[in-house]
Amino acid sequence: QVQLVESGGGSVQAGGSLRLSCAASGYTFSSTCMGWFRQAPGKEREGVAAIYTTGGQTYYADSVKGRFSISRDIAKNTVYLQMSSLKPEDTAMYYCAKGTRLDGGSGYYCSLGVRWYGYWGQGTQVTVS
Question: How many angstroms separate the CA atoms of 63 and 89, rounded?
Fold first, then answer.
């Protein structure tokens, strides 16, 4: 079955960096959307970044553009989220998820919407102080 296992979370000072990893198994890693989401206490889960594993197209929330970078290693079935210039407001539980590519009319894309992702990891905590 599909398994997604996140790692790399921790505590860091503002301005610091962390790299999250998501190891995927149980399905064909190529030709799928992989996303990173986060949820802070009392807030809804929100999409942070997504990548189409075959073509490598990336998508980012405005709040993290220029600071976060999503990438994948197809040989390792792993997706990464490199986070830099971290802010206290980045504090949250971060989740990796597998989703469906959508037809936007002019082309396919990976959404940052939670509803389009059906498989989730257990999460890894990121705390920025």
Answer: 10
CB–CB of 101/52 below 8 Å? yes
Q: What does the alpha-carbon distance between residue 48 and residue 59 come to, in Å, rounded to a whole number?
A: 8
Nearest 5 degrees, angle CA 36-CA 39-CA 44? 115
Nearest to 73 by CA among 82, 64, 63: 82
Q: Whole-angstrom Cα distance, residue 101 to residue 104?
A: 9
Per-residue pLDDT tens digits for 82-93: 999 999 999 999
From the CB of residue 16, how many other CB atoms can be counted at a distance below 10 Å?
14
How far apart are alpha carbons 129 and 120 in whole angstroms? 27
The CA distances from residue 68 to 18, 31, 46, 65, in Å, are 10, 22, 15, 6
- Percent with pLDDT over 90 in the chain: 86
